């Protein structure tokens, strides 16, 4: 019946239309229809396109070109074809050109640009992309009524351009490839770029893909085609580079989807002015290639056919299969023109063309006279080329099969052509545009030729079977082949429409130009990142003539929000799993523990390689456990996540032991923590190899949290041990070493154990939630109760059992998760398991009543042997809940653990939870583990589930969440305002809560409320002061996925921080577990050390004035602003404390001159009656910014230099050693230093050092006179009845026996000193010996006084006393007497103890026996000893 109607229609149409034919051409395939041609404006078009612009089922005509005489330059004309004999003007001059000019020859042949058609906004209406002649314009189809005069793409002055639509990223919307010149002024740039359609209503500069790099070509073409039949469009571009004599052709494979990479294995002829056409010429389903253009290699026009064989690789067709007709700046169209099923070819364009050299020259290096006459000049010739167009034309070539082509018809003067079923007889007709005389605007034409092929071409049949499914973030639509009366199935093409409603196409539009399809010959269309929801889709078959079938019956396809991924993972039961970025590459990796189907246990790590979870090998391997818990926490604060796992370890077949293992991340792998010396509190043994054999397994039986607020994570672990004892133990973390906290007296050991650190009352201190069975009443040790208890931290780390936080409710085979589902700042509890008390299976949501207790449980589907986890999987700003486990403990098919597994997501709506029934494709698992985590970094939470199915198969699956495709979660904003307050060894960190932006278009939808945000901190050494500082040393900034380490609130106090400089930062985390960017670093320091004196400089001036410059040693900052914190500095006389002679010690105040940073200066004025120039400085009260007050220090000072003429004294800073240089003891002024040193010389057994060692420098100076050295010694019981002999010794380098100097014991201000004379500087100390020591240099016959002149009443000379020097060869009693020149005795000097052998000294202070200073003059000194007396003189000179 259909055949008969088609035959009658065709017969009537042909009869009518022959009235308009030129009978002289009846033998041709196409005959001119003057009647139809007269309906078209006789313009010279650059491009002709055909498409159903008004969706009435008829193909309409669009022409574009350039005419600056009759039109405004670039023009766009649209004609509507509404019937076999009806062509109406639809819209003319759609836009006002940006420029009305052209360049070169193109001005006379219709322009240098083009157009392409496509539904860029997926509204089901064909839009028009127009370019060239320094214009770029995208006109939107306004519902089939008109085309917009508004431009929907960024303006660009393009010339010599070609732009083509193509869905490069397979997201359903059309992208643009641009090849052409860009001429914003008089400068011509070449652009090759990919313009991505990001689903917006316009194309902007931000949509240009920066990752696509291509050669700079113009004067050519571009075309998309799926050459390798992998479902995505590949690309060919061809044209000239900067060199006008060049020609380049490149092919780019689309792999992976959306990334164009050049295929270097394709050898394609380089052309310019290229026309490109993909068509299946050999009916093998893959597109072959036809190119036509100017070939630099041949210096002429060339058309070349490439056969796609094998698929994805082009080879030139055989020579006899090639077409000997080439054009440049032309068009190639392909269609089955004669209804034989083989695709024929039409080629048009410039048929005669020359490259004309254009020579110019510049005059350079001109030499002229003063009058401007040229003497000489160099000529620089420049040769360029330009195109010259001589003739236009077109030819039709019929495909005889097997790639054999025969010329059928020729059309002179044709610039461009297109096929269109004008008369609607199922055969393609021909539209031509050109000029009979190039350059003559009156000779242009636009003609329609009707196809005269006899026979019938019925519409193809649509596919009969349609199927669709989703895998990961991909949706696959496939169908059975369509049918056709001429074309084989393999060469049929297809249009597909997909939308979110019946008959819609908002995912994939079927609005395509005539004789093209949106798919090609494949029977499958794959979408990546397709949003979840309902889809309706249908398929249409297209034959080689462009004739389309009816649409297939529409199918409905629902894609759930969570779809199974392509990850391959081992199925386990009794498992535990965790997401974490183990290798710190920004991607979430996965750890799985559990029992395999074989009965063996396993622990396996999977690294995330850009979305692909790949197993990694550990050497040595990680212990395998099942029935326990796994966690990631950087407990040693090295910035890397460590691994803790607990559970049951298979020792031998049938024998299992509980164990907990600790692994640290080192050198890219996990290694057993051998440094962690955990002490078994029951055996006292030190645990080695990171294994705690007495700690039990059990789901959620351990957790990490900073309960003592020192920044590092502490451990809680509970359950049963190997001996049947139960535990709930807290281990304090100290630099990565875990120690049992034995002070916790209120913890109730439980088994089984669910435990979780959490700040239940939001007071800034981690509390502890524990669920299990334990003995609440010690008087009834056999009475075990299941209960839930929150232990409240008293602020000092002590856990207190709180009656307000107790629930008479507990579970076995259970799971616990805490999360703030109502965003009130207090975490609530999700609890699931078997309540043995009531013998029921439960899942409860228990609300935290503002930290004061637990109320109003919500009852959900009960599960046991499973897991619960919080997460905002639908990005609506509140927490949802995943529940997975067994539901029926009594089922007959349950075996030993019950059956009826379930995996259910509860979606929250304003505090109420209901199952998401759209997730019916989730595997229902029991004996399971589950966890949320955004492993593909797309802005939504994906789901991982392990466990046993109803059929007892074991699974481990990742479900990709598709929510982010249309509703990606926006991360919280970066925290901007942070501050710190330091209190001795603690710091309070504070920050301002950021905004968690909602999801477009409503910024208030999808955001986590401020109280619901959690925060992650990082604190460590300050890199500004130490480039090698560990920035995680106090609080690690590396976190796994979940609650570990995260905190509520906007402040946190960290205590017990070691002294040092620190930096810290914070980031926010929303309910979707998305992190904000880290805040900027903030800095502080902990200063526990008081300041000390670093150096003191005493600048002696005139009139007794001394400027003291005191520099403090302070690692941080001195408080130099507060008066109460200023140093107190006073001075005393080290030798004569009673300065004014009133019988009491005196102090002199030093007047502050300045105090800045660490330097204090002051002025000291010595009174006239001050004796000597040595000063004893006392410094106290200096305070730093942290309030640390210095311990008082005393420093001794003398003038920096000893003046040779006057002599002087030098003293060590600690006052223990001094030397006196008499007048002229040295040849020049000298600075003497006396510094304590350490000595590693092993002393002789004969001597014992009794003081420190001191270096007196310069050691190489020559001493003209004996120098007096005085060294402090401890009080010794030395007398005539003892064998201990104290002496001053000089340390000869590398000699264990000091050189003996001897020495006399004196008292100065009740301190004991030894005095002796020395002849050179060096290293000295005081010693004792019980042996007789000899001194070769003794001279027992000489008595000397140094200084020879001194000033006991002050200040003519520095010295207030003289030293009487003498040598003894053995211990003796000695008496010295002082006489004036009249022979009167003035003073008698002796010692309470005998003087020892060696150099000895007696000191006369210039006073008589009444304590008065003797007058100036010369005095006689005698020394009486056993059997002899010596005599000398000394001078006294007072003021």
Q: What does this entry look like structurally?
A:
This protein has 1439 residues and is mainly β. Helices cover 2% and strands 46% of the residues. The protein contains 3 helices and 96 strands. Strands 80, 81, 82, 84, 85 and 88 form a 6-stranded antiparallel sheet that branches. Strands 38, 39, 40, 41 and 42 form a 5-stranded antiparallel sheet that branches. Strand 34 and strand 35 form a beta hairpin. It starts with a helix and ends with a strand. The N terminus is likely disordered.
Write a concise synopsis of the structure shown.
This protein is mainly β.
Largest sheet: 6 strands, antiparallel
Number of helices: 3
Q: For the CA atoms, what is the radius of gyration?
A: 50 Å
Strand content: over 45%
Characterize the overall form.
elongated
Tally the beta strands. 96
Uncertain spans: 1-26
Distance between the termini: 149 Å
**Helical content class:** under 10%
Structural class: mainly beta
The average pLDDT is 90
